[in-house]
Protein backbone atom coordinates (compact mmCIF):
# COMPACT_ATOMS: atom_id res chain seq x y z
CA UNK A 1 0.00 0.00 0.00
CA UNK A 2 1.27 3.45 -0.88
CA UNK A 3 1.35 6.67 1.17
CA UNK A 4 0.26 5.04 4.42
CA UNK A 5 -3.02 4.03 2.86
CA UNK A 6 -5.66 2.82 5.27
CA UNK A 7 -8.47 0.53 4.21
CA UNK A 8 -11.65 -0.39 5.96
CA UNK A 9 -14.99 -1.89 5.12
CA UNK A 10 -17.22 -4.84 5.87
CA UNK A 11 -17.88 -8.02 3.99
CA UNK A 12 -19.35 -8.13 0.50
CA UNK A 13 -17.97 -4.73 -0.52
CA UNK A 14 -19.27 -3.62 -3.89
CA UNK A 15 -18.54 0.11 -3.98
CA UNK A 16 -15.04 1.50 -3.42
CA UNK A 17 -14.83 5.12 -2.30
CA UNK A 18 -11.54 7.02 -2.22
CA UNK A 19 -11.34 9.64 0.54
CA UNK A 20 -9.25 12.71 -0.29
CA UNK A 21 -8.33 15.34 2.28
CA UNK A 22 -7.43 18.89 1.35
CA UNK A 23 -5.40 19.47 4.52
CA UNK A 24 -1.76 18.72 5.20
CA UNK A 25 -2.02 19.80 8.86
CA UNK A 26 -1.38 17.27 11.61
CA UNK A 27 -4.49 17.17 13.76
CA UNK A 28 -6.58 18.30 10.78
CA UNK A 29 -10.32 18.28 11.33
CA UNK A 30 -10.84 17.46 7.64
CA UNK A 31 -8.51 14.47 7.71
CA UNK A 32 -10.01 13.35 11.03
CA UNK A 33 -13.46 13.34 9.44
CA UNK A 34 -12.18 11.10 6.67
CA UNK A 35 -10.38 8.81 9.14
CA UNK A 36 -13.70 8.52 10.94
CA UNK A 37 -15.37 7.65 7.64
CA UNK A 38 -12.96 4.70 7.41
CA UNK A 39 -14.58 3.35 10.55
CA UNK A 40 -18.13 4.38 9.61
CA UNK A 41 -18.35 2.58 6.28
CA UNK A 42 -21.71 0.81 5.91
CA UNK A 43 -22.04 -2.71 4.56
CA UNK A 44 -21.32 -2.91 0.87
CA UNK A 45 -18.84 -0.04 0.91
CA UNK A 46 -15.05 -0.13 0.99
CA UNK A 47 -13.22 3.10 1.75
CA UNK A 48 -9.57 4.02 1.36
CA UNK A 49 -7.85 7.20 2.52
CA UNK A 50 -5.49 8.92 0.10
CA UNK A 51 -2.59 10.30 2.10
CA UNK A 52 -0.22 11.47 -0.63
CA UNK A 53 -1.23 15.13 -0.79
CA UNK A 54 2.02 16.52 0.64
CA UNK A 55 4.13 14.29 -1.63
CA UNK A 56 2.78 15.65 -4.90
CA UNK A 57 5.23 17.93 -6.70
CA UNK A 58 4.07 21.38 -7.78
CA UNK A 59 2.08 20.86 -10.93
CA UNK A 60 4.07 21.54 -14.08
CA UNK A 61 2.46 21.01 -17.50
CA UNK A 62 5.89 19.99 -18.83
CA UNK A 63 5.70 16.92 -16.56
CA UNK A 64 2.12 16.10 -17.49
CA UNK A 65 3.24 13.47 -19.98
CA UNK A 66 3.02 9.69 -20.36
CA UNK A 67 5.75 9.39 -17.72
CA UNK A 68 4.19 11.33 -14.87
CA UNK A 69 6.08 11.91 -11.60
CA UNK A 70 5.41 8.80 -9.47
CA UNK A 71 3.16 10.54 -6.90
CA UNK A 72 0.97 11.97 -9.67
CA UNK A 73 0.77 8.60 -11.44
CA UNK A 74 -0.20 6.99 -8.12
CA UNK A 75 -2.91 9.59 -7.59
CA UNK A 76 -4.40 9.05 -11.01
CA UNK A 77 -4.26 5.28 -10.59
CA UNK A 78 -6.05 5.51 -7.25
CA UNK A 79 -8.75 7.70 -8.78
CA UNK A 80 -9.15 5.37 -11.75
CA UNK A 81 -9.69 2.32 -9.57
CA UNK A 82 -12.20 4.00 -7.22
CA UNK A 83 -15.92 3.98 -7.94
CA UNK A 84 -16.35 7.40 -6.35
CA UNK A 85 -14.43 10.09 -4.48
CA UNK A 86 -15.26 11.90 -1.25
CA UNK A 87 -13.39 15.15 -0.55
CA UNK A 88 -13.02 17.03 2.70
CA UNK A 89 -11.07 20.27 2.56
CA UNK A 90 -10.54 23.41 4.59
CA UNK A 91 -10.91 26.90 3.18
CA UNK A 92 -7.80 29.02 2.88
CA UNK A 93 -8.14 32.69 1.96
CA UNK A 94 -11.63 32.24 0.62
CA UNK A 95 -10.79 29.32 -1.65
CA UNK A 96 -9.08 25.90 -1.69
CA UNK A 97 -5.68 25.35 -0.05
CA UNK A 98 -2.97 25.61 -2.69
CA UNK A 99 -1.72 22.08 -2.05
CA UNK A 100 -5.19 20.67 -2.66
CA UNK A 101 -5.73 22.75 -5.81
CA UNK A 102 -2.34 21.38 -6.89
CA UNK A 103 -3.71 17.84 -6.46
CA UNK A 104 -6.72 18.73 -8.58
CA UNK A 105 -4.48 20.28 -11.24
CA UNK A 106 -2.64 16.96 -11.55
CA UNK A 107 -5.94 15.34 -12.53
CA UNK A 108 -6.83 17.78 -15.32
CA UNK A 109 -4.65 16.13 -17.97
CA UNK A 110 -6.03 12.63 -17.36
CA UNK A 111 -9.42 11.09 -18.07
CA UNK A 112 -9.83 9.50 -14.61
CA UNK A 113 -12.11 12.22 -13.23
CA UNK A 114 -14.42 12.28 -16.24
CA UNK A 115 -17.92 11.31 -15.03
CA UNK A 116 -16.47 10.06 -11.72
CA UNK A 117 -19.11 10.30 -8.97
CA UNK A 118 -17.86 12.81 -6.38
CA UNK A 119 -19.05 14.52 -3.21
CA UNK A 120 -17.60 16.56 -0.37
CA UNK A 121 -18.17 17.10 3.31
CA UNK A 122 -17.63 20.59 4.73
CA UNK A 123 -16.54 20.36 8.38
CA UNK A 124 -16.35 24.14 8.97
CA UNK A 125 -18.85 25.86 11.27
CA UNK A 126 -22.06 27.15 9.65
CA UNK A 127 -21.34 30.26 7.58
CA UNK A 128 -17.65 29.42 7.07
CA UNK A 129 -15.84 27.40 4.46
CA UNK A 130 -18.34 28.21 1.72
CA UNK A 131 -15.63 29.59 -0.55
CA UNK A 132 -13.88 26.20 -0.48
CA UNK A 133 -17.07 24.34 -1.41
CA UNK A 134 -17.90 26.78 -4.19
CA UNK A 135 -14.42 26.58 -5.67
CA UNK A 136 -14.43 22.81 -5.40
CA UNK A 137 -17.73 22.70 -7.28
CA UNK A 138 -16.24 24.91 -10.00
CA UNK A 139 -13.13 22.76 -10.42
CA UNK A 140 -15.02 19.46 -10.28
CA UNK A 141 -17.47 20.85 -12.84
CA UNK A 142 -14.57 21.77 -15.09
CA UNK A 143 -13.32 18.19 -14.74
CA UNK A 144 -16.75 16.87 -15.86
CA UNK A 145 -17.22 14.83 -12.70
CA UNK A 146 -20.62 13.56 -11.62
CA UNK A 147 -21.36 15.68 -8.52
CA UNK A 148 -23.69 13.88 -6.09
CA UNK A 149 -25.47 16.86 -4.55
CA UNK A 150 -27.34 14.75 -2.00
CA UNK A 151 -24.00 13.61 -0.54
CA UNK A 152 -22.48 17.12 -0.32
CA UNK A 153 -23.18 18.10 3.27
CA UNK A 154 -21.91 20.13 6.21
CA UNK A 155 -20.91 18.17 9.32
CA UNK A 156 -19.22 20.66 11.61
CA UNK A 157 -16.15 19.32 13.41
CA UNK A 158 -14.65 21.65 16.05
CA UNK A 159 -10.90 21.25 16.57
CA UNK A 160 -11.50 19.93 20.10
CA UNK A 161 -13.54 17.07 18.67
CA UNK A 162 -10.49 15.36 17.17
CA UNK A 163 -9.34 12.62 19.53
CA UNK A 164 -5.81 11.36 20.17
CA UNK A 165 -6.46 8.59 17.63
CA UNK A 166 -7.17 11.34 15.04
CA UNK A 167 -10.82 10.36 14.65
CA UNK A 168 -14.05 11.94 15.86
CA UNK A 169 -16.10 10.24 18.54
CA UNK A 170 -19.24 12.40 18.10
CA UNK A 171 -21.96 9.91 17.12
CA UNK A 172 -23.79 12.55 15.04
CA UNK A 173 -20.70 13.10 12.91
CA UNK A 174 -20.17 9.34 12.58
CA UNK A 175 -23.76 8.76 11.56
CA UNK A 176 -23.59 11.72 9.18
CA UNK A 177 -20.51 10.27 7.50
CA UNK A 178 -22.13 6.86 7.27
CA UNK A 179 -25.14 8.49 5.55
CA UNK A 180 -22.86 10.27 3.10
CA UNK A 181 -21.10 7.00 2.20
CA UNK A 182 -24.46 5.25 1.86
CA UNK A 183 -25.77 8.01 -0.43
CA UNK A 184 -22.67 7.81 -2.61
CA UNK A 185 -22.90 4.03 -2.82
CA UNK A 186 -26.58 4.17 -3.79
CA UNK A 187 -25.76 6.67 -6.51
CA UNK A 188 -22.98 4.44 -7.86
CA UNK A 189 -25.08 1.29 -7.82
CA UNK A 190 -27.98 3.20 -9.41
C1 LIG B 1 -3.71 30.09 5.72
C2 LIG B 1 -5.12 29.94 6.26
C3 LIG B 1 -6.16 30.60 5.66
C4 LIG B 1 -7.46 30.42 6.12
N1 LIG B 1 -8.49 31.07 5.48
C5 LIG B 1 -9.76 30.83 5.86
C6 LIG B 1 -10.86 31.41 5.15
O1 LIG B 1 -10.69 32.13 4.20
N2 LIG B 1 -12.11 31.11 5.55
C7 LIG B 1 -12.36 30.28 6.61
O2 LIG B 1 -13.54 30.02 6.91
N3 LIG B 1 -11.35 29.71 7.31
C8 LIG B 1 -10.06 29.97 6.95
N4 LIG B 1 -9.02 29.39 7.63
C9 LIG B 1 -9.33 28.49 8.76
C10 LIG B 1 -9.27 27.04 8.34
O3 LIG B 1 -10.14 26.78 7.26
C11 LIG B 1 -9.67 26.19 9.54
O4 LIG B 1 -8.71 26.39 10.55
C12 LIG B 1 -9.78 24.72 9.24
O5 LIG B 1 -10.24 24.05 10.37
C13 LIG B 1 -8.49 24.10 8.84
O6 LIG B 1 -8.76 22.77 8.47
P1 LIG B 1 -7.96 21.54 9.11
O7 LIG B 1 -8.40 21.46 10.55
O8 LIG B 1 -8.40 20.37 8.32
O9 LIG B 1 -6.50 21.84 8.97
C14 LIG B 1 -7.72 29.57 7.22
C15 LIG B 1 -6.63 28.91 7.83
C16 LIG B 1 -5.35 29.07 7.35
C17 LIG B 1 -4.20 28.33 8.00
UniProtKB/TrEMBL annotation:
PANTHER family: CHROMATE REDUCTASE, NAD(P)H-DEPENDENT FMN REDUCTASE LOT6. It comes from the Bacteria. Gene3D superfamilies: 3.40.50.360. This is NAD(P)H-dependent oxidoreductase. InterPro entries: Flavoprotein-like_sf, FMN_Rdtase-like_dom, NAD(P)H-dep_reductase. Residues 16-148 form the NADPH-dependent FMN reductase-like domain. GO terms for molecular function: FMN binding; oxidoreductase activity. It comes from Saccharopolyspora elongata. GO terms for cellular component: cytosol. Pfam families: FMN_red.
